[in-house]
Design goal:
Two copies of one chain form a homodimer.
Chain A lengths: L1 E4 L4 H13 L5 E3 L10 H6 L7 E3 L5 E3 L1 H11 L10 H29 L12 H22 L12 H12 L12 H11 L7
Parallel strand pairs in A: 1-2
Antiparallel strand pairs in A: 1-3, 3-4
């Protein structure tokens, strides 16, 4: 088994935080995103969508999509459960994982990719008006999340789950996207501080 | 249990096609998207993100996100499996479900929402340049999908899965987005014709 990794970029980082929470170690090969290594012929043969992470299984099967890779490890190593145990837990955690992904990670990514000078070669064409349109969406979702986190420790309930991992990389991705957490969102700040203090956050 | 539905819109339709494939019937309440019923105070109390579908469980729990709702039903009614059985099957199906969602359904949705006159009140502001930027992404992914479908009947392998359901609603959503399947993509056309002929596609 081999994990094709991409450093601190949000998606490969999700898998590494997940593995750290599970205590799993996987042989890793770095793909140099700065040199557009994900667009090389060699890596395109692994993932035609030219994105990291990718996991090569021992039978040669390639898995891509960070959440699909995480779920694969969850099924092989169920403890501690990060996708839930009962049907209701599993569904609530997937709901929150997706809410965070679609309404926080994606808009932050749209802002970053369509406004940051470093993304000119990656996001063609950059559409600055789309970056602007997404900034208020990030803040609107963070306000909603702050209300939710009033009543519980983690995004999907009283336990740390894969939804918190997506939340961590989303909030950390706000920095290069130049969006700050508003000062009045005390619950989001408390939650982000707590999950950032876990050893897994160093991944 | 009650499903808040939204007619032929892609996300509520995913759940209905899934339920039809499973042979499950669920009491349903229509939310009138034409009248912006999803933004009413009553529905906002159910889903603060103001989107359908939503599933209310008998204990009052609200599940949103079509794929989380589908997985909940998969766990309650495992046959026929639409999310896979073994860890590898589950991961490959989730990979394809996400690839279709992120690289087909989303760009089609961006085109529709940012160019269709009917979406002016829903997508504020509309960014026509973002619609234009997404059209070639739709076609690029369809070409990749056509290569994949050369070697197999369905998106994620030899069986119909939830990835085909996302594929069906994505391709059907291309019509209001005014994007046609290129004539030379014979495998995509064959696949779309076949999954459209299943009784579940009427949902």
């Amino acid at each position: 088994m081999k994990l094709y990794d991409g450093g601190r970029a949000p998606n490969p980082r999700r898998v590494k935080v997940f593995l750290a929470e599970k205590g799993i170690s996987v042989p890793t090969e770095q793909v140099d995103l700065g040199a557009l290594g994900q667009k090389s012929a060699a890596f395109t043969a692994i993932n035609p969508l030219q994105r990291v992470p990718a996991l090569q299984l021992d039978d040669g099967t390639i898995l891509t999509e960070s959440i699909a890779i995480c779920r694969y490890f969850e099924l092989l190593h169920p403890e501690p459960p990060l996708f839930g145990r009962t049907p209701k837990e599993v569904a609530v955690i997937e709901m929150w994982q997706r809410r965070i992904e679609l309404h926080l990670l994606m808009p932050v990514s749209h802002v970053f990719r369509n406004s940051h000078p470093a993304m000119k070669e990656m996001e063609v064409p950059q559409v600055p008006a789309w970056a602007e349109a997404n900034k208020p969406r990030v803040l609107e979702f963070l306000h909603l999340l702050d209300q939710e986190l009033k009543g519980r420790a983690f995004v999907a309930g009283d336990s740390y789950t894969v939804a918190d991992i997506t939340g961590l990389v989303s909030v950390d991705f706000m920095k290069p996207a130049k969006i700050a957490i508003p000062d009045n969102l005390a619950n989001v700040k408390r939650w982000h501080t707590e999950i950032s203090a876990r050893p897994s956050a160093k991944a």
